[in-house]
Amino acid sequence: MSDIQAGTNRVAIQAATGQTYGKATEQMNAQRAVPMGTPPTEAPQMQRPVPGTLGALTRPTERPMEPITAGANFGAGPNAIAAGIPIPQSPTARAVDEIRAIAQLYGSDDLLDLLDAYGNQV
Hints:
The chain is mostly helical. The chain is about 30% helix and about 0% strand. Among the domains are: about 1-40, no CATH class; about 90-120.
């Protein structure tokens, strides 16, 4: 479907066949006004190490100054947030957040009452 124009990464302007009179020109003019982007490419696959190529499990640590609890929400070292580890949110918490956003957007008394029933103030 897409021929690449010489010298650019844009998709060539073209129209579908079999349209009613004037629609093909309208479609091509729209593509000139807002050019189509580059054609999609397949995302590169992340290379995973082959089992056994990382060394022995009992080898010495590569980070001797980092506590074993680094990234955990207990013990020495940075907690999960400081280590950049996202904290999963429960489906109920996500639903309450969405209801809160809708209640703030539309000011619905019914949604505010629902949030109050769950003990979440807007």
